[in-house]
């Protein structure tokens, strides 16, 4: 009987946790992003007109500024707002050349070599309503943890 009560208690707590997580991902993308920021006690450094939230996590005042057209190498982790990682690694691309999703380009352009930042943005700067395969559903706001390794 005690085991049954424990099981019922566990299921009740589990249902509460799941419902709380669903609440955070309900509403508009803007509400989902704001809920994520609030629930994770993040301090937004800048919010752009496009909806990108730029959160500087490690500054490098002496780092080189990055210019459009440069080859930029970054370490990154891409996540959904559920904190599920969909991709991670090191990647090089030409900034501003349209080789990456818009939010990635826009956010990294704000950084200097050696800096780290978290970028959170709506699907309009990511994969839109189409999503990206099984890992990124359509209309998903995205979060990227970024470190700029180099720019040439």
Automatic annotation (TrEMBL):
Keywords: Isomerase, Rotamase
UniProt key word Cell membrane: no
GO molecular function, one term: peptidyl-prolyl cis-trans isomerase activity
Domain PPIase FKBP-type: 69-152
InterPro entries tied to this protein: PPIase_dom_sf (IPR046357), PPIase_FKBP_dom (IPR001179)
Enzyme Commission code(s) on record: 5.2.1.8
Catalytic activity: [protein]-peptidylproline (omega=180) = [protein]-peptidylproline (omega=0)
SUPFAM superfamilies attached to this UniProt entry: FKBP-like (SSF54534)
Family of this protein: Belongs to the FKBP-type PPIase family.
Name of the protein in question: Peptidyl-prolyl cis-trans isomerase
Protein species of origin: Runella defluvii
